[in-house]
Amino acid sequence: MTTETIETRGFEAEVARLLHLMVHSVYSEKEIFLRELISNASDACDKLRYEALTEPALTADDPGFRVEIALDKDSRTLTVSDNGIGMSKDELIANLGTIARSGTSAFVEQLSGDESKDMSLIGRFGVGFYSVFMVADRVHVVSRKAGQTDAFAWESDGAGTYSLGPAERATRGTTITLHLREGEDEFLDPWRLKRIVKTYSDHIALPVILKAVPKAEGEDADDAAPAEDETLNSASALWTRPKADITAEQYTEFYRHIGHAMDEPWATIHWKAEGTIEYTGLLFVPTARPFDLFDPKRQSRLKLYVRRVFITDDCEALLPGWLRFLRGVVDSADLPLNISREMLQESPLTAKIRSGLVKKVLSDLEKRAADKEAFAAFWDAFGAVVKEGLYEDFERREQILKIARFKSTKSNGEWISLADYAERMRPNQTAVYFITGDAAHIAKSPQLEAFKARDIEVLLLSDPIDDFWTGAGLDWDGKPFQSVTRGDIDLSQIPDAEDKPETKADNAPDAALDKLIAAAKLALGDAVKDVRVSRRLTDSAVCLVADNGDMDMHLARLMRAAKGPDAGFDTARILEINPGHPLVKALAARAETDGTADTLADAAHLLLDQARIVEGEIPTDPAAFARRLSDVMTKAVA
Ligand code: ADP
Ligand code: MG
């Protein structure tokens, strides 16, 4: 390597921050660096194996994929080498100089500067390649891309810059040499390395080999040093092994490897499907939400293998969007090996596998739902995503409704099922009632008052998706979902709650109410669709409701927020007034004596604005609202 051609480059700022943390690491499980290196080597071999399907020349000279680990006690180096796809110069820059991976950037975003806090985050995120700087003060990478003759060397001490220049490498692949820090000699101990590989990388489907240490003439045999090359792992694809032979730890490590995750799997589903199409599925439900869960692309990250050859992790057609949180592997012998990624999306075989996966996962979830507490953790993390299926997956709706969990006016913050809800339905109840909106406010909505008075449970739905699936015409046991903020709801056939206080029926007289309503309609004009006497309210004076057939109010609000105020989502609402409320009664009395009083017009506007505010909206004309409110307050205190 000639010095002229070696360039020095600065790390991207975020990488520099991350490296600083690695270099000063006090993390107790530093050994994970080896898992990261082996995991990368395995990914690199998978990628090349796939490329070679269409371009066999790429691997013709050296078809046996493997990872080799070599120790050198004298120079205190540990080397991990693979014959995978390798990296070009540009790829070295992009992959080892920036933060390309969403998990890592999420990690960096959460860094607080408090070292012990930040180090504990590593356990949750994983930091990939950069973890080598926890144990090495200098790292040297030589890589040669398959199909190319040039090799490049990358080197860094982790302190802000790296160097890049030409190098020699006889064959394709990547060699990573770690110059171990003072005090990290444990990673030169073959026994220690064997244990690390067994713990973290046993599931890796290619051999991880510890290279023999050549003995110098006359030297005593070192028991620990391997006299010949030794394969340290099982080197068979984990999903092909019988379930009984796989430990929970092995599943976990495999999940972390393929899911690029750091948590424990919440559920592991491993099965072999036989029938019209055969495949093996090994799927994991994560415990924690992956970072890209709400990415607009809503893509699944399953890895598809055909006869143990990795094909793609980018096949949308394999899983519906509402199961995109799943991680894992599907391996089928029935798909052609040379299937292109594009063909896969269209293939009827893919559709068959997809439907098999969905069925398996749903029935598994249904079983797990019996464990209330454990299932609550799942639903907390992924319920909002699963509910997308109620809207999108017509065929699976009923099954999804069975596992769906909800909070309600009676659930005290716990998740309940629709079966729980149905059990508590009141006599003559004909619908499953729900309200959508902000979690913080919906429980206090005035539209719920009559439901409380009759002890009727109402589902409190606060995920944006709830506004969509609830409009999709679903029912539970023949009972339709009914929004409490829409249409004219008649609860008169349902008995009062037992503990409901005796109320005298002292509503304002009908004639007076009619006059008040006429005056309010005149004053409000187009600002409302109608003004009417409410059957929903017991305590509040007014509320807004959506007319039957109009878009519900919370959905319209979401649409306005997404599409802008002029996109046509500002339908006029119905203003309902509570005939038993003292203010309404007083206004009705006033309307009876003088239906055209200015006070009535001002009151109508104030009541409408008040109803809007309770809905989480702002008054139509905030300045006029403020003026009117000041006027009434002045009169009240004068
Ligand atoms: P991740 O594996 O999650 O993508 P890493 O930090 O572990 O993140 O690696 C970053 C990238 O560097 C990889 O995505 C890959 O493109 C590249 N890379 C790392 N090690 C190797 C290797 N041994 N062979 C080829 N490419 C590699
Ligand atoms: Mg990696």
Which terms would index this structure?
about 650 residues; alpha+beta; Heat Shock Protein 90; Ribosomal Protein S5, domain 2; Four Helix Bundle (Hemerythrin (Met), subunit A); 3 domains; five-stranded mixed β-sheet; 22 strands; about 35% helix; about 20% strand; elongated; binds adenosine-5'-diphosphate; binds magnesium ion
Helix residue percentage: 25-40%
Question: What fold name stands as the CATH topology of the largest domain?
Answer: Heat Shock Protein 90
Using the 3D structure, state the CATH architecture of the largest domain.
Answer: 2-Layer Sandwich
Shape: elongated
Write out the strand line-up for the largest beta sheet, numbering strands in chain order: 1-6-5-4-7-3-2-8-9
Low-confidence stretches: none
Discrete helix count: 20
Q: State mean pLDDT (0 to 100 scale).
A: 91
Biggest sheet record? 9 strands, mixed
